Amino acid sequence: MEVNLTRVDQDYHFQATGSSGIEVNIDGSPEIGGHNAGARPMELLLMGLGGCSSIDIIQILKKQRQQIDSFDIKVNAERTPGEVPSLFKNIHVHFKLGGPLDEEKVRKAIDLSLDKYCSVAAILYKTATITHSFEVVPAKAPVA
């Protein structure tokens, strides 16, 4: 795996490109002279956790013939204050899935992802406690 970063301005804005060819903008916060032109590097780690686990969960539920009508993830994290580097110490991931889903299958898929399959979670577990919760929103009745 390879990624390339190219500096865009004279401050902290970079465009990153991976093997997929899709560009991602990265920037520092305005407090350090950034321009809000991209995600912060630590935000990208949390996005990676959400993306990695969601791919696992969808794959598992598809194999079980579960219909997923909607899927949202919220990731909240706390960093160790006053330390350099300031690592994540607590991360909570909340999954919200919609559709005619079996809640026990959803629970098992999430557990399998975060405890076994998700490489990003495996990395973050080395420095942080990761907790999770989920909710299943019933499928909406078709409009007549």
UniProtKB/TrEMBL annotation:
The keyword Lipid biosynthesis does not apply. InterPro entries: KH_dom-like_a/b, OsmC/Ohr_fam, OsmC/Ohrsf. Keywords: Oxidoreductase, Peroxidase. PANTHER family: PROTEIN YHFA. It comes from the Bacteria. GO terms for molecular function: peroxidase activity. It is an enzyme of class 1 (oxidoreductase). The keyword Signal does not apply. This is OsmC family protein. Its EC number is 1.11.1.-. Coiled coil: none annotated. It comes from Pontibacter silvestris.
